[in-house]
Amino acid sequence: MSDMKSGRPGNRVRLEDVAKLAGVSMKTVSNVVHDYPHVSATTRERVQAAIDQLGYRPNLTARTLATGRTGMLALAIPEIDQPYFADLARHIGEEATRRGYRIIVEQTLKDLEAERAVIRDREEGLVDGVIFQPVRIDTMEIARLRPDTPLVLLGEGARPLTADHVMIDNVAAARDGMDLLLRQGRRRIGFLGMVRRDPTQSTHLRLLGYQESLLAADAISDPALVVETDWFGVDDGITALRAALDAGARFDALFCRDDLFAMAALRVLDRAGLRVPDDVAVLGWDDTALARYSTPALSSISPDKAAIARTTLDLLEDRMAGFDGVGRHRTVAHAIAERDTTAVSG
Amino acid sequence: MSDMKSGRPGNRVRLEDVAKLAGVSMKTVSNVVHDYPHVSATTRERVQAAIDQLGYRPNLTARTLATGRTGMLALAIPEIDQPYFADLARHIGEEATRRGYRIIVEQTLKDLEAERAVIRDREEGLVDGVIFQPVRIDTMEIARLRPDTPLVLLGEGARPLTADHVMIDNVAAARDGMDLLLRQGRRRIGFLGMVRRDPTQSTHLRLLGYQESLLAADAISDPALVVETDWFGVDDGITALRAALDAGARFDALFCRDDLFAMAALRVLDRAGLRVPDDVAVLGWDDTALARYSTPALSSISPDKAAIARTTLDLLEDRMAGFDGVGRHRTVAHAIAERDTTAVSG
DNA sequence: CCGAGGAATATCAGCGCTGTAAATTTCAAG
DNA sequence: CTTGAAATTTACAGCGCTGATATTCCTCGG
């Protein structure tokens, strides 16, 4: 078949070679490659034979230059090894593959300059569209640097009117989570962690939902129940929660900003001799692998990541197809994955 | 500065536009863009001004077509959301960025056809090199489908003579891990999980190291201590270990094939009322986020992922530079991250 | 003041493919 | 057999940039 060695390294087979062998024009070969309908069966057959014989594979770069489409999308996220973003990358990757795109992953490492580079797009024509979860760059700046490449933003970082945006309703999701805890009769529900300088709105919105629920319920609303942290991550969570306990704070549930803080909670509570969920219930956010695999298994607010992926690609394809209206904002469903840490004993 | 709106959407600024404005040839502009040394200061200045004024950004695709280099590497892994691969992707991504490449992530989802596609490379000229951790495709087939794109393989899946290969010494690492447990006086050390149909060699090699250590030590070597599983993953691990305990197996330590199985162990042991590490020590493999964040914190064999990334890129750049010798195999260092699950009480 | 020799800049042919428009062939109807 | 419309196929000009190969411009020793 096509496993013949050409023996001429670096001597690629081009469209023209196929055309010559098949005795047709380059364009006809191109038409065959693209399944263009108006090609006679005999021609198609002859060309296909030539393609197989030569082992021809189209050169993507040349095609891109000629068409202006690259078939690639950039996914710009803070860190690929953070469980939530790894999950997200998987879903977006699968959805993109399904639709015929490839994904370039760009890690911004929460660096402002790196985020600017994503928007500014130092080079050009590399990708057809960009999916970007900003952390540090703000709304104004995105609007100002607004790229000509179609862009869809994720998360609560920035929400300029110029770009599309996909998120879940953080406040509502937080209330839903709180409802679960309240229904169990939990009354001293803490919030871990109120990240002091979260450049995004996420923490704020989740805290808002938490507070709204407390107000609407017959539960204790006490600033001491809100545990502040300096930054994101398990270690910050551990430090902060430990300090809070040492300072005398007492909880019968911990509503955590994300799964990482929830892992911190499990660690600290365990050390403090408190049982989960009997003494303290714990609820995370993001429903990452961490939640599924921890012991006890962590209950977690679960954004519908597949839906995020689908919606994001929908919006992006729209833009790539030429839509040029004002930024659209889509809210995607969430659920609560109930596991051990909010189980009702009995 | 350059934030002037051109107002002509889709009307890109090209090298020629800059050249015209600066009153020089395209080539000179190109030289300025590339910091070619032999350009007079005045010319350089004038050209740079034109670049800024027009907001010119080079078109990567055209450059690629002209040079034959894309500046992109493909990273083909089973699943980006598996903690180990997420970690790996991060390190390789960072190293690649450092060296001026971008990464295209290709998820094979452990699908044979998808793996074949990675090697066969349906299209061409998309990436300069490929980093690939195969799971199902075998050595012979890789050799047969051998692509003209430089290729470096990761892991123990396949090791054809035709491609470079980076791994850690699984047998030695397993022995090191066992030594740790043996030094603590553990004698009934189990192996979780012996994945029955692991298409790669990893499980086998780790089991081998486990067995070698047992033979060399004064410990119990009993087939009942080796817990077989149908497949990878926490759930398989849970099922298998639970069954083993039910069948009467008793351990004072569990050497786990990877962190996922270790998480399964923590879950099952907890349910069984066994304390970790007092009753049973647990050792994982891969040193993923799971290990760092679990409670108790999981000790784990820790491949030097940064070194893997570096070595891989070294080999790949070598190939991209034209090296065409027989496949080289590099072994990268490993360590043991000692945490709670192998702590000595005292 | 001339010519050598290096520095600075320019010319131009592609890289491999596709869109457009035009040419050619095919075929049913007249 | 024609003839015109539809079906196929082709020619060719780029897409935007760079490498190789000129060409022009200086500077300086003799």
Radius of gyration of chain A: 26 Å
Tally the structural domains of chain A: 3
CATH H-level homologous superfamily name of the largest domain in chain A: Response regulator
Give average pLDDT of chain A, whole number. Answer: 92
Compressed to H and E, one letter per element, the order of chain A equals: HHHHEHEHEHEEHEHEHEHEHEHEE
Low-confidence stretches of chain A: 1-9
Structural class of chain A: alpha/beta
Number of helices of chain A: 13
**CATH topology (fold) name of the largest domain in chain A:** Rossmann fold
Shape, principal axes of CA atoms of chain A: elongated
Most residues in contact: chain pair: A-B, 55 and 56 residues
**Assembly of the depicted chains:** homodimer
Query: Which strand order spans the largest sheet of chain A, edge to edge or round the barrel?
Result: 2-1-3-4-5-11
Largest sheet of chain A: 6 strands, parallel
Estimated share of beta-strand residues of chain A: 15-25%
In which range does the helix fraction of chain A lie?
40-55%
- CATH architecture call of the largest domain in chain A: 3-Layer(aba) Sandwich
The CATH class of the largest domain in chain A is identified as Alpha Beta
The termini of chain A sit apart by: 67 Å
Number of strands of chain A: 12
